[in-house]
Every structure is written in structure tokens, then in C-alpha cells.
Specification:
340 residues; globular; Rossmann fold; alpha+beta; single chain; six-stranded mixed β-sheet; 2 domains; four-stranded antiparallel β-sheet
């Protein structure tokens, strides 16, 4: 088994504010889990703590059922794929992939067999004699993956490995990494700030903010049942509208809506951009900007003084109205941001 368990994990620098603030997380054997959040939320720091590249302040990290707090990084049997690829520029592709095996003093014949097998699986067979500077970004990323794969580690750690690639190549590499996970049947811990990567790649998603876990669940649950306003706003295109509910009634741009939820007072109503035309109640809007994104249009406007947007199919006949439904809305406490 290659499970990873983080227990009461804390990381601070010089005794100041906690960068990682009492995180508890169990990553199952063979699971593909994605850590996602905005810059500075602590996601990359968690990878560095798991790998041993940084020391924890307090708490425990367990890999394969063993506490590794004081285990040297090279003895944790983990492969780390960095955002910058971290290839040796003076070495060929073959030498880069083989480096870890040579350091572990594998037999030359075994090294050659493993390197060529990995190169074949990643379509690098014709590039083995090239240096990193002679490769494209996608090819360099595959070499970095090959160097990690060849050791057959217990856990793969990936820190925004696709962020330096162009959009089309990112889509291709997402598929390759998922296929790789299915083939290797090894635990993957993947860090990204890209919500599309998180939704399409993860068995589970961990949403982080300011060093704390906001929600952990499957992509479907995260998307359809966000635990709080932060999660709702981070995953997908969500509109937040300030409303005041009295006797189960509230209004948006003068149109009255009814809710059977036991809510009173000023709250934040939320509805996803793709749900802004799926309801029954028409609301007049003043379109401010219209964007074409290929298969759909995005309309920008305001509701109750709050900036909103609607995703509309190209074949949808649109004038200056949207159609809302309370059943598509979420409600959040204005102060705490927690789901009501």
C-alpha cells in the first residue's frame, strides 16, 4: 500500500503565522488527489513537506503506514515532478531518465531496459540522445515524468507540472498523466491552481485557502455542493448576489422570489453562470460586455449591484432577459461565508 496520511500538520517559519494550519488528510493507496487553491494557500508547501524537502513544524506524515517525519527525502521512495522540469542541461534525455537508477547503483543492463521501456511508453524513443535545450516544453515535461516513472516509486508528487505549457498541450498532457496513473496504479498527489485540471484529473479534490482545508470530496460533490462561499467561487463560474430574505421572500432587480429554506435577513445568494437561463422567472438585465468563447457566449451584467455573468449557447435566442430559478441557487452567510 502507498497511502499518505497527514495528521495535525503545521508549518510555520520563524514561529510566525502558520503557512500550513493543522491539516488532516488521508490519501488512499492508488488515489489521484489534487490540491488546488490560489497562490500562497500552502498547496506546494504540503508537497515539499511530504517529500521531506522541508521540515514540518509539528504533526505527523505517514507513508505506507510508517511515520516519515525524520526520514531523509531519498529514503521516502517518492518521485517529485517540478513545475520547472528540473532536468540536467548537460545530460541527454537517456541520462536524465537513468540518473536516479544510477544513483541507486542499478545494474547497467537493468537501467538500459528500464529507460528504454519508459521512453517507449512516453514516445521519447527518438529523443534519447538529445539535450533538454533541443526539446519542446511538452517533450521536456515527458522526460521529467520518465525520470520519475523509471524508479517505480510509492508516491508521485507533481507541482503544477503543466503550467509552463500552452493551452492545447496542457489538454494533451492532462490526458497522458491520467492514462499514466491508470497504468501505474500508484498514488498521485497533484498540485495546481487551475480548476479545470482539478475537475478533470482528480479522484478527489482538496480545496485550500490560507493554509486550511476548505473542502475535500469528489469533483462532482465539490461542484454541486460547495461547503462555503470560497469553494463555490473558486470552482466554476459562480455569481454572488446580495439579497434580503423576509418571510421566505426576496427580490432580485425588483422581481420577487420565494424560498422554503428557513433563512431570514441579509445573505448572499449564488447561482452558476450556466444556470442563468435555465429557470422560469424572467429578470431584465443590461448587458455590459459580450464575449465569444467558441461554442458559447458569456454575457456580463449586474444584479442588485453585484457583478454577474451568464453562459449562453450560441443557438440560444438572447435579448435582455435571463431566467432564474430558486432551485438553482445556493445561499451563504454574509459574515462567515458558510453554506446555509
Amino acid at each position: 500500500m502507498s497511502s499518505v496520511v497527514l495528521k495535525n500538520l503545521i508549518k510555520s517559519y520563524d514561529g510566525k503565522k502558520n503557512i500550513i494550519d493543522n491539516i488532516n488528510l488521508e490519501i488512499a493507496d492508488k488515489e489521484f488527489i489534487v490540491l488546488v487553491g490560489s497562490s500562497g494557500c500552502g498547496k506546494s508547501t504540503i508537497l515539499r513537506l511530504i517529500s521531506g524537502l522541508e521540515d514540518i513544524t509539528s504533526g505527523e506524515i505517514m507513508i505506507d503506514g510508517k511515520i516519515v517525519n525524520n526520514v531523509h527525502p531519498k529514503d521516502r521512495d517518492i518521485a517529485f515532478v517540478f513545475q520547472s522540469y528540473a532536468l540536467y542541461p548537460h545530460m541527454s534525455v537517456y541520462e536524465n531518465i537513468a540518473f536516479g537508477l544510477k544513483m541507486r547503483k542499478y545494474d547497467k543492463k537493468v537501467i538500459d531496459e528500464k529507460v528504454r521501456e519508459v521512453a517507449k511508453s512516453l514516445n521519447l524513443e527518438d529523443l534519447l540522445d538529445r539535450k533538454p535545450r533541443q526539446l519542446s516544453g511538452g517533450q521536456r515535461q515527458r522526460v521529467a515524468l520518465g525520470r520519475a516513472i523509471v524508479r517505480n516509486p510509492k508516491v508521485f508528487l507533481m507541482d503544477e507540472p503543466l503550467s509552463n505549457l500552452d493551452a492545447n498541450l496542457r489538454v494533451q498532457m492532462r490526458t497522458e498523466i491520467k492514462r499514466l496513473h491508470q497504468k501505474l496504479q500508484t498514488t498521485f498527489v497533484y498540485v495546481t491552481h487551475d480548476q479545470t485540471e482539478a475537475l478533470t484529473m482528480g479522484d478527489r479534490i482538496v480545496i485550500l485557502d490560507k493554509g486550511k482545508i476548505q473542502q475535500v470530496d469528489s469533483p462532482e460533490v465539490i461542484y454541486n455542493n460547495p461547503a462555503n462561499k470560497f469553494v463555490a467561487g473558486f470552482i466554476g463560474q459562480m455569481n454572488f448576489i446580495d439579497v434580503k430574505i423576509q418571510d421566505g421572500k426576496f427580490n432580485i432587480e425588483g422581481i420577487e422570489f420565494y424560498t422554503d429554506k428557513n433563512i431570514t435577513g441579509e445573505v448572499t445568494a449564488a447561482i452558476r453562470a450556466e444556470k442563468m437561463i435555465s429557470g422560469h422567472t424572467e429578470v431584465n438585465i443590461n448587458p455590459e460586455i459580450v464575449e465569444m468563447t467558441g461554442g458559447e457566449r458569456i454575457i456580463y451584467f449586474s444584479l442588485n449591484g453585484c457583478k454577474c455573468s451568464a453562459k449562453i449557447p450560441l443557438d440560444y435566442s438572447f435579448s435582455d432577459k435571463i431566467k432564474l430559478d430558486v432551485s438553482d441557487m445556493y445561499f451563504f452567510d454574509k459574515e462567515s461565508g458558510e453554506r446555509i
